[in-house]
Amino acid sequence: MNGVLIVDKPAGLTSHDVVNRVRRILRERSVGHLGTLDPIATGVLPLVVGNLTRLAQFYTASEKTYEGVIRFGFSTDTYDADGNATSAVQETVLTLAGLRQISRRFTGTIEQMPPPFSAKKIKGVPAYKLARRKQEVPLQAVQVEIKEFEILKVDGDRASFRIRVASGTYVRSIAHEMGTALGCGAHLTELRRTHVSEFELLDAHTLEELQFAADVTSEQIEDLFVHPRKLLPEFPAVTANDDMLASIRFGRAVNLPDVSNARRVRVFRGQRELVAIATRIAGTLFHPGLVFLQNTTEKTI
Prior knowledge:
The protein is α+β, with helices and mostly antiparallel strands. The protein is built from seven helices and 17 strands. It folds into three domains: 89 residues, Pseudouridine synthase, CATH 3.30.2350; 133 residues, Pseudouridine synthase, CATH 3.30.2350; 62 residues, Archaeosine Trna-guanine Transglycosylase, Chain: A, domain 4, CATH 2.30.130. A hairpin with a 3-residue loop joins strand 15 and strand 16.
């Protein structure tokens, strides 16, 4: 079974928990995810299945969009609602205009300190392991890009927001730093991912929907996968004929239809079967560096 499946991750599960559940449901060992979600977060979690796990290399810098809620008045050690309070509760008076003004500081390319409870490695050890042991977590600020950050409304000590960020950005840190800027502390209480790269909530299915489909037929499961033509839209698509497929199957260079000087292309057999990602050598000659047809040796591009 090969494909890309978008799960609407429930709160309370780690991304790895979801991967393990899907492995059992599909009875497929080769399942991976395209970017973690914290346990409190819900929403778009793209999974790659079977031989399409090799597509993960193209999603390491995916743009992501979230909606969520920040609670002001105290901070926590995890920067979210799962953590322990690290400051006394303060009464806060928030205004939409005031928060929107502060949010402008967190738009564009900024320096951001990752949360101590994060997967950032410190001498090979994830920061969260040190934090759990109450050991020093000597993290360093990193440069991140917040492409859009809008405070949508204020309700008491909570503010709803929508944010679009480049890969590597911690939304929890933004909540924490906004609380620091206001002098009252803050933490993230809700987070829902609505987009990852080309994937959105409309593509997503719950674990219950996936289990129900698996209880019917394998064809029912495959109907839940993202249509292959929607994958990697930044690469033009070409449809290979039988002669081209024969060369691609054995990893040989092949002449493909003109694709407007694109460096890489997606190669399909028919409308639904993604057979390769190929890289231009010269003219219309392409090398199929990543081949998904059966009985081929995995390559990198």
